[in-house]
Amino acid sequence: MSFMNPVSEMRRTLAVLAAGLALVLAGAHPLAAEPANPEMADSISPYLRLHAEDPVQWRAWDRDLLDEARESGRPLLISSGYFSCHYCHVMHEESFLDQGIAERLNEHFIPVKLDREVHTALDTYLLEFQRATGGSAGWPLNVVVMPEGHALTGVVYAPRDGFADFLDGVVERLTADEERLAELAAAGSRELEQRLRDGEKPLSAERAARLPDVLWSRMEREADDLGGGFGQETRFPHSPYLDALLTAQEDTRAPDWVGEFLSITLEEMAGSGLRDVLGGGFFRYSETPDWGTPHFEIMLEDQAQLARVYLRAGELFGREDWTRIGLETLDFVGREMALRDSDPGAAVAPESDFRGFASSLSALDDEGREGGAYLWPGSALEAALEDHPEPELVRARFGMDGSPSFSDGHLPADGMDTAALAERFDLDEDRVREYVDRGREALIEARQERGLPRDEKVLTGAHGMLLSALAEAVRQDLGEEYETMGRDVRDWLASRADEPEDLPALLGLPAKEVGPATLPDYAYVARGLHDWDAATDSGDGERVRALLRTAWTRFSGEDGFRTTEDPPLPGMIAERFHPAVHRPSGATAILQLTAEHAAADADLESALADYPLEPGQGIESNPLHHAGLILWLEERGDEG
């Protein structure tokens, strides 16, 4: 996935390598008895396994690689991405399978392949570097890191020739004056660190008091009041922003425009191309502001956040249709992302039948076609509805009765409603609903036969987010199935949280194999258990407090919170407040939960009392990234 809008010629199909890609995804290759890159082939990450047969001599991330870089005089080229990312697959085909690119990387760099969901702290830092130096960032992300550990330069997705030019330019400059470049990289690292430090400088009391007004002004300016969402081109759901808006609306602190904006945004996201209206899941983002041109990766953390948003909004606004969308999203997770006994290579907890949920579904089907699992060519649509009494009604309901919206076929969307269909086809509304349900079932059944590769890593933090969404469904008493599903997630998380010092980043695998959990992992698990306890009286309060105490001990210091206990690169510093853009802020969540549990725990009460909560200049500069924090600080001030 890239935050860029590459031109159309960059968006080439991967069908040429379809057969080979399918075998690689399964961990095999038709031409090689042994993998070219054993570290990739043996990885727990399917994204790394995807690169097992590349001519690039990839290495898995390890801090010892910096020692190797110093000894060899070669910088690292860290390439970060994830399995379900469309442009990660495109760059794999165009560049990392190319012999010329491989020769450049193998000779002049130590090539490192990084799964951003496994090494989230390092990936986040590299993203911040790229955003600060390049203006935008995304995946696949490729950053040159000098042997001393300082990032030098980077590039996101680029076609083969552009990436070759990037590498040649770096090599040319290194050859001409490597010492000077090392100094520039170190200076850039210090400058980025100083920028973060400057952002931490507390605002005056007067400016801090105006932060809610600053937030609402910036939000209103960046909100699209016609199409919903934020931004000008590429359109993400930005679940943390929506969550903050719902909180303010519940507390009657939101400006008048917020209710209508939320309504437009939730309507557009649910009925457009951002959502799989047949199955119920949400895609990662849309390239266009009308939400209609998605990249088709589906992430567990997005489903969890958006399910909770729609359930909260449904209750707040009395909208049963939004509640239904939230439940359909949870149903989608249970149906399409659950790991079962028959799943080969699933991350398994031996003592339990519950195996968790896949971290993501690929944007590409098993033939290498982007969106191939979701798009409907005319012939496939006709075949799926062959036995339906009113196929045209089904087409009209799901917006597939006109010209296809994509070159590979129709993407189902919200089309005609029940009343309009009843009038057009001269049927009563009960019969229309019956036909729509039969059509949906037929289409989903036909779609089940299509291959859709999954990333079967079981992410600890994402399961914490999912538990919060399931807790919301249980709190509203929306169905026993969600309590059953939530109990499975809660029990698995609780068993890991009983030893908070050893909480792993991935569930179902020993922590020593995957590394310890990060600050956000602790925050999301603690929040999930807290929300479940509030909804079910499960008795998880002390478990939550143990997680919080461990998080404070492990990640906090004089300068704030570190994302990871042992930062892998020198510029990764602690900050008092972390942003929340596509996922909640781990630091803010820890602070909020600590405040809720401080009365029952003297250590937590002391930790919060000693923490400098004065907002800094960086929050004033980027209020949307700290919307939840600003509202929480305002609430504390009102109470205080």
UniProtKB/TrEMBL annotation:
<keyword id="KW-0418">Kinase</keyword>
<dbReference type="InterPro" id="IPR008928">
    <property type="entry name" value="6-hairpin_glycosidase_sf"/>
</dbReference>
<dbReference type="GO" id="GO:0016301">
    <property type="term" value="F:kinase activity"/>
</dbReference>
<protein>
    <submittedName>
        <fullName>Thymidylate kinase</fullName>
    </submittedName>
</protein>
<keyword id="KW-0732">Signal</keyword>
<dbReference type="InterPro" id="IPR024705">
    <property type="entry name" value="Ssp411"/>
</dbReference>
<dbReference type="InterPro" id="IPR036249">
    <property type="entry name" value="Thioredoxin-like_sf"/>
</dbReference>
<dbReference type="Pfam" id="PF03190">
    <property type="entry name" value="Thioredox_DsbH"/>
</dbReference>
<dbReference type="GO" id="GO:0005975">
    <property type="term" value="P:carbohydrate metabolic process"/>
</dbReference>
<feature type="signal peptide">
    <location>
        <begin position="1"/>
        <end position="32"/>
    </location>
</feature>
<feature type="domain" description="Spermatogenesis-associated protein 20-like TRX">
    <location>
        <begin position="40"/>
        <end position="185"/>
    </location>
</feature>
<keyword id="KW-0808">Transferase</keyword>
<dbReference type="InterPro" id="IPR004879">
    <property type="entry name" value="Ssp411-like_TRX"/>
</dbReference>
